[in-house]
Amino acid sequence: MKAIYPASFDPITNGHLDIIERALKIVDHLVLLIARSPDKPGLLSKEERLDILKNLFEGKKNITIDYWDGLIMEYSKKHDINLVIRGLRAISDFEYEYMMASMNKKLNPKVETIFMMTGETYYYLSSRTIKEVVSLGGSVKGLVPPIAEQRLREKLRK
Question: Is 16 assigned a catalytic role?
Fold first, then answer.
């Protein structure tokens, strides 16, 4: 079974890595889909995010890295994928994710969404928080892969 894990990955965090690792225990192949969100202008460019993910997962035959600038349901139709994985950190995520999953079901009834709770070690992590900490000169060691921290520091010159 193949699934899509869509996220901004701006930057990828260890919370994302936790979801990816656990998702691969239940699916044969996972598409890490950098999805553009009109509500979230990215700090890292599409190319930088693609490069980071490709670097992290080089040689992993059960992971595909891709970018999509449209509706996830259109991507799922185009690539014949009927499962979406979404991570939940807290109750506050649930309402938004539930509404999105419901809209996605309306757009493509063949697609199911599975919610995975982020592990307790990373429940407080968000890409937004990571960017804020780095922009203020703080350490995010152990919260993001080293390559992601390096790229953020280069981008923010911190």
Answer: yes
* 147 neighbors 55 (Cβ within 8 angstroms): yes
Across 22-47, b (16+ Cβ under 10 Å) vs e yields ebbeebeebbbbbbeeeeeebbbeee
Amino acid letter at 126?
S
Q: How many helices (H) and strands (E) does the chain have?
A: 6, 5
Q: 47 is in which domain, residue-wise? A: 2-123
User: Which of 2, 77, 89, 105 is the catalytic position?
Assistant: 89
The CATH number given to whatever domain includes residue 47 is 3.40.50.620
| Annotated catalytic residue within 29, 37, 40, 158 | 40
pLDDT digits (tens, 9 = 90+) for 59-109: 999 999 999 999 999 999 999 999 999 999 877 789 989 999 999 999 999
Residue among 49, 127, 131, 151 flagged as catalytic: 127
pTM over 0.90: yes
Does some domain include residue 137? no
